[in-house]
Amino acid sequence: MTFLLVMLHTGTMFAVLVCFWPRWRQRLGSREGTPGLIRPWSFLTMLVIATACTGILGLGLKVTIERLVLEKLFGHPHGEVEHLFRNLPLIAIALFTVGLLIIVAGLKDEEPGTSL
User: Fold this and answer.
1) Is the dihedral of CA 39, 40, 43, 48 positive or negative?
2) Does residue 112 fall inside a structural domain?
3) 79 phi and psi, to 5 degrees?
4) C-alpha distances in Å from residue 14, one per residue of 11, 19, 20, 23, 51
5) What whole-number distance in Å separates Cα of residue 101 and Cα of residue 48?
6) pTM of this prediction?
């Protein structure tokens, strides 16, 4: 199961890199004084901060799910988030919900100057 999860996350990472690389390269252009450009160190700082926030929130959510939901609510002695992957209806509902959120977010009109 761990190998599958690693491969899924690796594929997601490469998809994000391929999708956003043209925008990042444009934003990291070398012309000074051009509006919308970000200095490379500023970009890296924002990337590190975003990664740290994601890690902290992810770890907190993992602990919450394992301790409160799986151990206390469902009575698993050693609740692990991986137990949720065995519940196919739950996974189907979660994937459907996330798909709907992505579609709704894509339908939102982009305001000028707010794109990455």
Assistant:
1) negative
2) no
3) -65, 130
4) 5, 8, 10, 15, 16
5) 26
6) 0.53
Task: Provide the token pair at 45.
Answer: 């700082």
Residue 87 pLDDT: 80
Full residue range of the structural domain in which residue 25 is found: 2-107
Q: Is residue 113 part of a domain?
A: no
Q: What is the pLDDT of residue 58?
A: 92
C-alpha–C-alpha distance, residues 50 and 89, integer Å: 32
Q: 29 lies in a domain? A: yes
Q: Dump pLDDT digits (tens) for 57-106.
A: 999 998 888 888 888 887 878 878 877 777 888 889 988 999 899 888 88
Over the stretch 28-59, which tens digit does the pLDDT of each residue have?
A: 765 555 666 667 677 788 889 999 999 999 99
Indicate the number of domains in the chain.
Answer: 1
**CA separation (Å) from 67 to 12, 70, 71, 79?**
28, 6, 5, 7
